[in-house]
């Protein structure tokens, strides 16, 4: 008798929770993904042509490693879009884009991702310092900022061969999440081009031991 | 008076006399037979002053010929070509040498031939030469002149070096050296007084005694050396043992190095295989932690959302 009472109580509590959730329906969610299909420019043969490169997973603030799509309003306020989110976290997408673009350029003999079990000559570490949409106090005049630092490291000696910080600023076409994603997409393309040019310069520089 | 002259006899006698005179004249003036003399050429590089035509050519002091022609060598203006005629009986060999020798105080010279050995082959004309050429040697005066030249050069050099040696600076240095030497000698003189000499003599005596003692000690030293040799042999044996031990240790170390290398390779393989997997897992864990952190942050701000979902959602720009 006592057991039956306990079962009824638990069922009632569960029903109460389920019923409690129903009055406030979750709004529809848009998922966004970045798409950076760039035309590949063939590079001249450099001293990196015989080197193996591993692109490490990009790291940064947890804002850039989350699926939530954050934005900054005015100078100090930071929010996340309620109805928009990333399909793939920005750090994963940036890592993937760099790997694919460098691989297609044939600047190195081979470009591996962080999961590769091969032994490599060089390692590219990527730090995301900014990858966000900005608004003014009135949620107008939207733009995006991208700031990424790349470290090229000799895997044998663990010494830095070259380092550079790339900063990109792109005005958004619309003051919403879609405009922000489109601007970040453009900014990522600009960053990839500049990063590839920088690596090409490092490989051509006779003073640097690559 | 019978004045009958036999003209035929007179003519015969006169004719006989004339023939005899002609014969005597011929005998007197007849040229030396060509086969009795041989012509030779001598080239002198020195002056042949005093050597005239018909000057004598002597072999070891005996006259054996004479000069018949003198001229400057047309092929070499530094030489004088002298043609001589020498008796064929003279033994002119390949090593025969001609020298100009002055004849007393007259200023005249003759040619003396010397140095021909018995074993040397006779001198013959070479191909392209009309007459054999006797080699010449410088005369006594030329030798003296050359020697004097070199002696004078040496003298000049010596005088020059002496001048340098006796320069004012060197003279000063030398006088300083002499002064210092005198001072040193004076000091030695003061040091080596009678007392010091007595000490030195005593030291010599002590040294002699020491030598005697050392001679007495030599048998003991020999014994010590023998013992030392035995001890050295033992030490050598010990070192041999130590060396063997070291060699064995070296082998062991080599084997250990190989083992460590093997282990190192294995560790490296394991590391290369495992690390990327671990890295991936860590990244996913990090992602999960971030998501959990977000959820916790949300429910921390509004715990009732777990049941009632009461928090008002802030809509972003462009969201309805």
A few lines on this structure:
Chain A is α/β, with parallel strands linked by helices. Chain A has 3 helices and 9 strands; from the N terminus they run H-E-E-E-E-E-H-E-E-E-E-H.
Describe this structure in words.
The complex is a heterodimer of chains A (210) and B (320). In chain A, strands 1, 2, 3, 4, 5, 6, 7, 8 and 9 form a nine-stranded mixed beta sheet that branches. In chain A, 30% of the residues lie in helices and 32% in strands. Chain A is α/β, with parallel strands linked by helices and 210 residues long. The N and C termini of chain A lie far apart (79 Å). Chain B is of the alpha/beta class and 320 residues long. Chain B folds into three domains: 35-138, Aminomethyltransferase beta-barrel domains (Elongation Factor Tu (Ef-tu), domain 3), CATH 2.40.30; 140-191; 193-277. Chain B contains four helices and seven strands; from the N terminus they run H-E-E-E-E-E-E-E-H-H-H. Chain B has helices at 7-29, 140-165, 168-191, 194-301, and strands at 37-44, 56-59, 62-72, 80-87, 97-103, 108-114, 133-136. The chains are: A alpha/beta (210), B alpha/beta (320). At the A-B interface, helix 1, strand 4, strand 5 and helix 3 of A face helix 4 of B.
